[in-house]
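Q&A log
Question type: sequence-to-structure
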Amino acid sequence: MGCRLRLVLVIHNHQPVGNFEGVFEESYQNSYQPFLDVLSEYPDIPFSLHTSGSLMEWMVEAHPEYIDRVRGLAESGQVEILGGPFYEPILAGIPKSDRIGQIKAYTEYLKKLFGTPIRGMWVPERVWEQSFVSDLVDAGMEFTLLDDSHFSAAGVRAEKMHGYYLSEDEGRLLKIFPDNETLRYQIPFTDPVETIHYLKQIADHHPHSVVVFGDDGEKFGAWPGTYDHVYRDGWLRRFLDLLRQNSDWLKVTTLGESVDTVSPMGSCYLPDASYREMNEWALSSERQLELSHLKDKFSEDEEFDRLKPYLRGGFWRNFRVKYSELNEMYSRMLLVSSRLQSLEATGVDAEDLPILHEARTELYRAQCNCPYWHGAFGGLYLPHLRNAIFKHLISADSLLEKINHRDNNWLEVEAADFNLDARKEIRLASHRLVSFLSPAHGGHLYELDIRGAKHNLLATLCRRPEPYHDIIRQAAQEQAQGGQNGDDIGKIHNAVRFKQPGLEQKLQYDNTPRKSLMDHFYQPGVDLDTVINGGGELGDFVEGVYLSSVRRTDDECDVRMSRKGHVGPYEVEVTKTVSLSKSAAGTLVVQYELSNLPTEVPLHFGVEFNFAGMAAGASDRYYYNHMGKQLGQLESKLDLEKLDRIGLVDEWLGLDAALDLSSPASIWTFPIETISQSEGGYELVHQSSVVIPHWEFVADDEGRWSVTITLSLDTSAAQAKALSEAAASGA
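Response status: OK
Response body:
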């Protein structure tokens, strides 16, 4: 009968930069290795394989035998190696030059590793904008695949998606395959017979078609419940056996072979989009819920299937609007990329070229996509992934500063729009740290990069409503009434699992960001629980606009911020001056001067600090007082009296952060915890430790009051650890 249908199986394996070593290894043992074990028994069934650069680099070090096996399969023609941007960035989330640079860099890496040409690529999260066509072609790519929903949104009907299309930008042509959504939901969750029946229908009605399945390799063993289903229960072997048994009409092949032997179905320009769920996640929580309710309401309508292709959802870049913390990370990445491009354009000495190359690699690692959005799994909500991004950004930035500054002891202060809000922020930096202040938003300290520990102490995340919080509340209510968590393999996308009990009771939302130098005027006598719940505020300083000025000498930089605002019926003025000196380049000194205060009136002033990335729930991560006495782990809720020093230690990170107060204060501490989704279920995640020194006082006769807060950062333990690890690795 001959080939009436080509089926392309595209497997995409990925682990993000900064993910836990145990997750890499578990995914290898449960998915990547057993998948190859089975496919190696079917040499007549080819497939296309994409592995992200972050995972590939780990494989090279941890499991070189896997690399050898893939190389052998590539040489035999069973595996087609796909490329892509090296560290799996969202293409819409990085500059054009970095898009092309990452793709080219990974192509060269893969060529050297496997000795095979790289013609096509995987688009991370299938986030697409039409201008990417010319970028991909300029980077050397011939073809790629995107979800069929992209084509639906362009007006292409389902029966016209069994092949590939030419797409154009600036005269460059790229071949793009639609990735079949029905197969993505069938494989590996339904009986293989059902998939063969579906493919047979296409072959009968649309002979000489090409149908593409492209999806996460982690579905084959790493996702909850899939290992037993795919391997022990034999799903994968049954599927491959059926492909063999139907080879008289069904040809399993690769993207490259299809391009070489099948003509394109035509030309098509695709709209800015991603896969259906991603488009929905990019909407605000309110709009997501509205869309969900509308779909539920009209899903039974006989015309609904015709309407669905036009339900577009949102636009991926709006994740940066939805989550301000994400925009801060993105803006920091752009700043590093811009500085690196400037150095490359002006040229550097030959001795600095290796440093520049290392900085470029660090920047590319910092562009890994997972923490730059949030959807079904943790993403942005996972501190270890955000911390990894900042680790590599700080590394890249520090390497560039080695080229810019021959002096090992330097200071810089500059004002510019660093977070892309059309307001000027202030960057105060030394060879020890980088701080960013936002006078237009409460005079907050919103980023504090500690070079020695490669850590942003303000990589925080505030608590905000998410659509799945309603699912948590509903599921908790059903469980209380005797319901069960869903673990049915066929309902894996909708299963509800709680990793801790009582999560619904932890749902709480913040009215303001969680940053530092946040200025509060509280009700006198207010208690900690009221503050934790967002109450007790009398002033308008927390997010008010401060006027700012900078002063620079050879040995010190000062940023002065002042605001006239209200505390209840009184108009008062707050001035805070943040200083950094060469003699104490790892210390920020903050002097507060409160003036025009009402006299003989009790006042209550507090300064909120947030410390992020110093994990909770471990005995080697704790608070301490001026005597060095431990006060509790970093998730502790504390109400302390009359202290002039409080410190936070993370022994694993090698970081000691301490606040010294010129006037003893009462101090509140409490954790910021979010409830988010992960592959394993809904979980409680520690985001930051709040520390609020606060003072109840009466102003002097001139209506004044002042205090100096010194934030000192000791990274000697982190630096010693890094030197030890470098020595052990022979670096």
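Response note: The two ends are 61 Å apart (CA to CA).
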